[in-house]
Amino acid sequence: MTVKTIRKRALAVAAAAALALAVAACGSDGGGGSTTSEGKTTMVWNMWSGSTAEVDAWNHLSQMVTAKHPDLALDFQTSSFNDYWTKLAAQASGGDAGCILGVQSYRAPSISQLLVPLDDMLAGAGINAADYDPSIWKALQVDGQQLAVPYDFGPLLMFYNADRFREAGVPIPTTSWTVQDFISAAQSLTSGGKHGFAVYPTIDSVTPWSLSLEGTGPLNAQGELDLTQEGFVKAVQWYADLVTQLKVAPQVVATNDATPALNSFIAGDAAMVVDGPWQLVNVMDQAQFEVGVAPIPAGDSGSHSQVAGSGFGISQTCPDPDKALQAIAVLTGPEALQYLAEQGRAFPARTAQQDAWFSPELAGAKDGLLAAIKNGVPAPATENYQQVNQLFMQYGVEAVNGQQSVPDFLNSVQQQAG
Amino acid sequence: MTLSVPAPPAAPPTAPPSNVVRRGDGRAALGFLAPSTSGFLLFTLIPLVGSLAISFFAWPVLGRRRFVGLDNFVELLTDPIFHRVMLNTLVFVVVYVPLNIVVSLGLALWISPRIRGRGIYRLLFFIPTVTPMIANALVWRLLYQPGGAIDQAFQTVLGMPAPNFLGDNRWAMAAVILMSVWQGFGYNMLVFSAGLDAIPQSLHEAASIDGAGPLRRFWSVTLPMLSPSMFFAMIMTLITSFQVFVQPYALTAGGPGVATETMVLHLYKEGFQQFDLGTASTIGWFLFMIIMLVTALQFLGQKRWVHYDD
């Protein structure tokens, strides 16, 4: 071998080695989402968020944790709500999920195998179920095991454009209004290209109507998905008739906008819409009119809505679940929820802190929300709820616009997801 | 890194061209190729082989993976929804590609004479291509939706509402294709425009002297001379339109029903919404095979109509 070829070979090896190093540096920094150095544990906290203001609020909570437990620091990692579940699944499949995970009640069954059951550890961390609203506490259980501690919750509500009601001389909704009141208000408010109501065929927005009109939801008594049961089919038909027969709501479009009905309400095109209290602060912020809040109007079975909310759980890969629960105790503690409530960010899952949410701007929501909470039922959830939700929305557009019959639509979703 | 690289030995200027492969350069070449080759291996070849392997498994993101042989392929081939998705993709390709070529060629021909403000037109026509797809989709949604600009125009002019373009399964695909043509013609227009500029003026003049009219000149001079550009544009547009994803994703999310769900959108939903990576990889391989086949056919067919001026 000549000196020249040796040099060339060295060059090749060096280049390859440099590349290998660079690639290795890109790799993961170890799984488990927790590192300890000099007696201080840093844990990764995965959570969704929708705005920088929200991120600031979560970071503030993370500082609260370190203030209370100086040996603990949280590394807050975030993505949008929809991306969160994709990212979480991808990270979990690589054994790389964070220690503390945001858990939404609808999606708790689908990620239950990622989470540590908390029941035996709660008392040790000073977390007492009695401090929380029972419906959301229960909504974060899967197969009787507590998988997360809630921070916020809420039933779906009716938001209404109070200015439009007054202009049209239509009586403002009360906490005891009925479906007949709702229909006649929607009819009076539909004119001149504007509509009384806005729909979007998500399973979540249909369920309150089904509960109130027919006393049934999308699941059967065994907790299995049963979209073709008589009551639910009738309720969905009623929902579609608002568009096709009564014409009090505009036709819907296929879109990747997550909340098209709410956006049409905010734009002033629809006078009423159904959504959750977590949207209220955004709605108040963006709408150019006075926003009112009422419970779902009462049907033959009363006024009911499913209660959904979110909390924090501990991933199976977390090396120190006890420490993680200490952090969660702070994140869902009275001070943290008081802070979130005062910001209008989350309606507190702790009953004692709920009053703080009704700040002057949200005070008008108090009667409507409290009435809705009183009649709330736990949200229906199945392991593949995400898939059900997606199929329902995708095929529901044709059903709501009258291009496909409601029973056919529900049959096809049931067959694909059941 | 501070390595001194030996200069390549200068060939004696009078030496005849040698076709003897000098050994020893191979390793140095390997060293220099290492960065790009490793990138290719890491980000293309290994994932490609990996996805082939995954397509033989039931591979949920969470939970147990299981070898299932050809089950994923068989399931997809017998799945009526996947048939519809393939049909949608085919419809998109068959309508979009010719429309795109006709529009871009037409506009390129229009601005090919040295007209005033030619550069401005080129720029204007190219703007849709460089604007972000999501922004386009938002604007087009405002045009398409009930109560939107098109609907209002219908109400004023015809006194009746426009079809619900994005909510009606008969119109949704047409709406997606129209937006895609608007977004996509600029690139091919630039290719054609450059191709037209490269045709020697003398050919046109010679044809005129021989008595050829404008149509005849277009048919017998312009088109044959432009055929290499057209071949390139056709291949690239065909491949990218088989892979269409962003337009339906941003505008209709594949709906209503599966009326605008294309193969890559279906792949995305299977992989990242249903978390079934086995099926998603299988769809990827179906698409890969289709694109390979169509591109190979085009290369075979090019002899008949592409004229290389050499």
UniProtKB/TrEMBL annotation, chain A:
Keywords: Signal. It holds the Pfam family SBP_bac_1. PROSITE patterns: PROKAR_LIPOPROTEIN. InterPro entries: Bact_solute-bd_prot1, SBP. It comes from the Bacteria. The lineage of its organism: Bacteria, Bacillati, Actinomycetota, Actinomycetes, Pseudonocardiales. It comes from Pseudonocardia cypriaca. Coiled coil: none annotated. This is Carbohydrate ABC transporter substrate-binding protein (CUT1 family). Residues 1-24 form the signal peptide.
